[in-house]
Design a protein that fits this description.
Structural class: alpha+beta
Number of strands: 8
Largest sheet: 6 strands, antiparallel
Number of helices: 7
Order of helices and strands: EEEEHEEEEHHHHHH
Strand order of the largest sheet: 2-3-4-1-5-6
């Protein structure tokens, strides 16, 4: 990492075989040997770097449907003599689902081109994070899904909040459901099922199972993200 400032830490649980390097605007990001690093040019960029890491984690967790954590407990800064000063502090959250790795081999003219994809690469989340950076509702929905649906005692509450923030952004439940060509009831059933965990004393019929609610919200969140132009 050739940036003068940065933060880094270990993926938890460790994923040692990911090697993924990419740039996001002025930030350099590297994941290698189970270590996540983000470098930047100025000390005042640290807060924005932490926001970017959080959004990458939220997008990764949504895309892989499993929460992943990183313990960002180290940061570095330059010393006058050209060396690096590394200090320990901080914590951020990252967990793991079925990994998808694909290799596409094609022939072009006299060359053989090999293209590899890995669902664990954080570079897959660049477009989603750019959209979340420009749309607060998307950022909130991803945060609710990552932080309150995955590894949570009350996942339905997180699903409800994700639905509410998206519904407000597009103008109502009907408009949200229409993003995937479904009737308003498609969204209302999620909210009615999740209602008991949100309002303990409000009676509600469970129209769907938790897994059905989760799958519906994933479809809606994906379509909501697709509807945002950057």
């Amino acid at each position: 990492m050739n940036k003068p400032f940065g933060i880094r830490g270990s993926l938890q649980p460790p994923i040692k075989d990911i090697e993924n390097k990419f740039n996001f605007d002025a930030f350099s990001i590297s994941i290698k040997d189970g270590v996540f690093e983000i470098g930047f040019d100025n000390a005042e960029d640290e807060e924005q770097a932490r926001i970017l890491v959080r959004q990458l984690l939220d997008s990764w967790s949504f895309r892989n449907n499993h929460k992943i954590e990183v313990n960002l407990n180290q940061k570095w800064k330059p010393l006058p003599e050209g060396k690096r000063h590394i200090e320990i502090e901080l914590h951020e959250h990252i967990g793991i689902s079925d990994r998808v790795m694909t290799t596409v081999i094609s022939e072009r003219m006299a060359y053989v081109v090999v293209q590899s994809e890995d669902s664990y690469h954080f570079s897959n989340d660049i477009e989603m994070v750019r959209k979340a950076s420009s749309n607060e509702a998307l950022a909130s929905a991803l945060s609710f899904y990552s932080g309150e649906v995955l590894e949570s005692q009350r996942p339905l509450y997180g699903l409800y909040k994700a639905i509410e923030v998206m519904s407000r952004e597009v103008g109502g439940d009907s408009q949200l459901a229409s993003l995937i060509n479904q009737p308003k009831r498609f969204v209302e059933d999620i909210k009615q099922t999740a209602q008991p965990t949100r309002h303990a004393y409000t009676p509600a019929n469970e129209k769907l199972t938790e897994s059905e609610c989760r799958e519906r919200v994933r479809r809606l969140l994906g379509a909501f993200a697709d509807s945002i132009n950057i």
